[in-house]
Amino acid sequence: MSATPPLKNDRFIRALLRQPVDRTPVWIMRQAGRYLPEYRAIREQAGDFMTLCSTPDLACEVTLQPLRRFDLDAAILFSDILTIPDAMGLGLYFEEGEGPKFKYPVQSAADIAKLAAPDPHDELSYVIDAVSLIRKELNGDVPLIGFSGSPWTLATYMVEGGSSKTFSKIKALLFEDPKSAHQLLSVLADSVASYLNAQIAAGAQAVMIFDSWGGALSTPHYKEFSLFYMQQIVDQLTREVDGVKIPVTLFTKGGGLWLKDIAATDCDAVGLDWSVDIGLAREQIGDKVALQGNMDPAVMGTTPEAIQTEATRILASYGHGSGHVFNLGHGITPNINPENVKALVDCVHEESAKYHL
Amino acid sequence: MSATPPLKNDRFIRALLRQPVDRTPVWIMRQAGRYLPEYRAIREQAGDFMTLCSTPDLACEVTLQPLRRFDLDAAILFSDILTIPDAMGLGLYFEEGEGPKFKYPVQSAADIAKLAAPDPHDELSYVIDAVSLIRKELNGDVPLIGFSGSPWTLATYMVEGGSSKTFSKIKALLFEDPKSAHQLLSVLADSVASYLNAQIAAGAQAVMIFDSWGGALSTPHYKEFSLFYMQQIVDQLTREVDGVKIPVTLFTKGGGLWLKDIAATDCDAVGLDWSVDIGLAREQIGDKVALQGNMDPAVMGTTPEAIQTEATRILASYGHGSGHVFNLGHGITPNINPENVKALVDCVHEESAKYHL
Question: Which end of chain B, N or C, is less surrounded by CB atoms within 10 Å?
Fold first, then answer.
């Protein structure tokens, strides 16, 4: 990447590394998404969601859309968390209003034994190409985040065949055949590590692992079946390219009880959902990691005034100094007025200045 | 209640009061429910769910059904958490497979201003009559638990008009018009207090408040809009009848971050969902309150062996001495084999003996 320009705005990377910044950086989970009319236009043109993900030009375009509107401090690769199981041959598809599904879910120990880590430069080359293209198009304006689902989260979809409320199938596997569960999670951890390393080699300047469903587990199961495999990935990741650090963020939604355990993986930052008090979280783990979050996404559906009040409260709760990347505690929902996103981003920059004097 | 016989099995009450017991008591949230064929038969006969709730003879019968099969240490009133808003005139109804709905949801500050606490002996007399009848029919075998939804949880259904994933309407109320939200929660707290006190007067020997959706809130919102109103109720409850204590249990699903705050309300026991490590919870608050929980309900869909392993782990995690009421971390689901419930109940009694020597 020596030919690429240096970062014009490196607040996001610096905050993840807990280095001094002038303002608290802000980006928004699912910032490229359905709340933007220009996204809906491209999505309609593409026909289906997977075409959008698997066509680098389109993935690049929707990644850049929110940056043209808002003063965001990072771009995030537009993709889906389920690209890895799809590349393993499970046949990812989307039914309108139903969430993701797999044509060939994992139904037995024999199914698990057949799984192999996909080659990121073969079955997943469309993602790696998108990363290269986006990095080039960003032209150093802001850093590019690469990402993956966590092994546990990927496994839930693979075994349940789609979204689930009770996770009864995957949990039955944990309780009845933990050995097969470990086999599944192990191949997923290797897959995620090589996938994220390929994204880093292609230009991702930070990576994030989304453990959307870790919070559905008991404490011992979380440690054994989710966190253990995120640790395996952290251990395998490229943490520096040409002398430049590549920070890694772990985010377990509903993981507020396990912040110390997550921070102990040697990740650079921990994502917080909105249930967590960010000030208390900083007391617990702020000497080890940066914190990313943690506004309730429901605020985005209200007024600019309510958004400003809540953002101001969270900035004050974190307090003085670097180490905070402002974000929502979960993805932005489709029904949001883009003007409210502008209100949030501008408020974070304005209100945070005093915490970085 | 002086004419009623003394309790033959008082393990449950004693454990809630942290008095010595011979075995860890066990009951199961939704123990009277669809996993029992005899329940499904009565439910079909009744025609609809609300007829079952509002006919004391039928509510009594289904309350007693699981006690005939399993060696449970408590009975819980068969009812719905939404009886109070229904009695307020919101028109509760159930659509097959869709969860509860209200015909007349709360849509404005004017709607809130019109709400009044229902008289438990008028609009809710069917519940109070069921409590009296069940208490009589139990004949002192085991104690009877009365219950209510928490003000916050009731408010979510009343404002959303039914179940919700994002709680966007009720949360908009909290952020945009907190004064009206407080007015709504205040009338609900008074309603729940008089409702539970009427259940206690009619024979309930312990009461529990289900805060099913407190975990959807940020920490400051949880304290301001959910816990504050449970505190108001605890302060108003009848805590003793004829010299006999009436223990009160508070259960916030997803409330693991706030255990110390919940225990500080002066409740007798705190319910734990399965994400919480019960051993750590005991270290945190076990000197103040008893703990109820906390097995992952998903285990019930597996094998008797897996159930025994997990129940044994939880008993060991709590450790020696009284103050633990075994339960699931959430209600039992409809797809469970009743034999698995027997395996759980018997295992808890057998395996726990050594912790009470």
Answer: C
* Nearest residue in chain B measured CA to CA from A313: B220
Can A18 be counted among the known catalytic residues? no
Q: pLDDT tens track of chain A, all 357 residues?
A: 445 678 999 999 999 999 999 999 999 999 999 999 999 999 999 988 999 999 999 999 999 999 999 999 999 999 999 999 999 999 999 887 788 999 999 999 999 999 999 999 999 999 999 999 999 999 999 999 999 999 999 999 999 999 999 999 999 999 999 999 999 999 999 999 999 999 999 999 999 999 999 999 999 999 999 999 999 999 999 999 999 999 999 999 999 999 999 999 999 999 999 999 999 999 999 999 999 999 999 999 999 999 999 999 999 999 999 999 999 999 999 999 999 999 999 999 999 999 999
Q: Give the global pTM.
A: 0.97
DSSP track, A242-305: TTEE--EEEEETT-GGGHHHHHTT--SEEE--TTS-HHHHHHHHTTT-EEEEEE-GGGGGS-HH
For residues A329 and B233, what is the distance between their CA atoms, to the nearest angstrom? 31
Measured between beta carbons, the chain A residues lying within 8 angstroms of B274 are: 218
The candidate with the shortest Cα–Cα distance to B33, out of B347, B344, B289, B341, is B341
* Nearest residue of chain A to residue B305 (CA atoms): A176
Write the ipTM: 0.96
Q: Distance (Å) from the C-alpha of residue A42 to the closest C-alpha of chain B? A: 26
Q: Which among B266, B259, B271, B253 has a CA at the least distance from the CA of B76?
A: B271
Kindly report the backbone phi and psi dihedral angles of residue A352, in degrees, each rounded to the nearest multiple of 5, phi listed first.
-85, -15
